[in-house]
Every structure is written in structure tokens, then in C-alpha cells.
Amino acid sequence: MSSLMVRIFAAFLIFLIIVTVVLYLLRRPALTYIGEYLVLKTPVETAGAIAVLTGSMPQRVLEAVKLYEAGYGRVIIITRGEASVAGLALEKKGIDIVSEADNNEMIARKLGVPSSNISVLETGVNSTYSESLAVLNYLRRKGIDTIIVVTSKTHTRRADIIFKRVFGECGGENIKIMTVPTSYDDFDPAKWWKVRSSLRNVALEYQKLAYLFLFEDSVCSKP
């Protein structure tokens, strides 16, 4: 090997070592930032309604009730997930299954929210996009122009993007959206990579964000 090749190899090796050391030293702040980016909390003010997105029961509905009790909203909106194939099969056999939406409603009532201040949307939803459209249709019918959206911590960034996109493109551009993570979620941006469930949630959210930015159109653009 020539002396020039030796110098090039040595320089590359030194560069590689420096990069490895820098990445090692920055791994914790870098990983923390990755977790923190997903968690969005909009400053909250009094709204016409508080929407509880499907999933992570009872963490999300608990936060909605907490906001309701603090006077931040007059009504709690609960979205309803689409019935699963297994659930429909059980119904055909005469076996009633209590849905997540029904459980969320029951929890809210048992925590003191009057039934008249709870609205369970009957339109089945299967994504954050369809949830945002169902909520938007409800708000437009009721003439409500401010909404607090409650969801899990890692879901707040994507939910906020989707709600604002759908509202802006589907006739709700004048409705103010405030997205709030439930305080009953134990996700910690400073150590998410040490918890298997958090690791899975972060990986999934970034996959969905990538798809959202690269391929997804709003529901208003879909047939």
C-alpha cells in the first residue's frame, strides 16, 4: 500500500472515530428531541367543545373530564371507532360488546359530566383523518368555532397537523383548534427508548408522519 493510500485510510479512520464519538455524546439529547417533537401542547383557552379521540382509554377521556371540570369546554365530544369484523360476528351471535366510545361516555358520566353535555358521534371512524372530519361536521352543525382535541402524547403532533389540514380544506378554516396531550399518559421524551411500548409508539408515529407528509391527501380529496 502506498504512503498516500495509508494517509487517506488513516484520515478516514480518524474521521470515522470522531463521528462515532460525537454521535455517542449527542445520543441522549438527539433521542430526547425525537421524543419531544411528537408531543405538542397548544396553549389552552375556553372552547366550545372538547373532543376525545379514539384510543388509549381511559387516559384521553380522563383529561377531557379534567378540562371540562376546569371550565375549558361546555361539551365533551366522543368519537366512535368502526366496528371490527370480530365485533360484528359476535353481534350476529347475540353477544353485545361494549364499545370504547360507550366506555368513554360511561366514565365521563360517572365522573360527574351530565349526559346532556356529552355527545357521542355515531359516525364510525377508522383514522385520525376520518375523526377530524366527523368532529368538523359536528362543530359546523352546532355552530361551534373553537375545539380542544385531546389525545395521547405521541399522537398530538400528527393529530394537530391532520385536524388543521382537514379543517382548512373542508370548510372549517375559521375554527380554532387547540391540541392537548393527556396528562395521564406516562410517555417520557427523555427516556422513551428504554420502554418497549414507547419505542414502538415513537417508531409508528414517525412512520405515519412520513406517510402523511409524502402521500396522504385530506379526506375532502378522496372519493
Describe this structure in words.
The chain has 223 residues and is α/β, with parallel strands linked by helices. It is elongated, with a radius of gyration of 23 Å. The model has no long low-confidence stretch (mean pLDDT 88). It contains seven helices and five strands, in the order H-E-H-E-H-H-E-H-E-H-E-H. A five-stranded parallel beta sheet has the order 3-2-1-4-5, sandwiched between helices. Helix 2 (59-69) packs parallel to helix 4 (100-110) and helix 5 (128-142) crosses helix 6 (156-169). The N and C termini lie far apart (65 Å). Helix 2 links the parallel strand 1 (49-52) and strand 2. It has one domain (42-221): HUPs (Rossmann fold, 3-Layer(aba) Sandwich), CATH 3.40.50. The protein has helices at 3-38, 59-69, 85-92, 100-110, 128-142, 156-169, 196-214; strands spanning 49-52, 76-81, 118-125, 146-151, 176-181.
Average residue pLDDT: 88
In the CATH hierarchy, what is the architecture at level 2? Answer: 3-Layer(aba) Sandwich
The CATH class label is: Alpha Beta
Q: Sketch the major β-sheet.
A: 5 strands, parallel
Structural class label: alpha/beta
Tally the helices.
Answer: 7
Broad shape: elongated
User: What is the rounded Rg?
Assistant: 23 Å
User: What's the number of domains?
Assistant: 1
Give a brief description.
With 223 residues, the chain is of the alpha/beta class.
Topology:
Layout: H1 3-38, E1 49-52, H2 59-69, E2 76-81, H3 85-92, H4 100-110, E3 118-125, H5 128-142, E4 146-151, H6 156-169, E5 176-181, H7 196-214
Parallel strand pairs: 1-2, 1-4, 2-3, 4-5
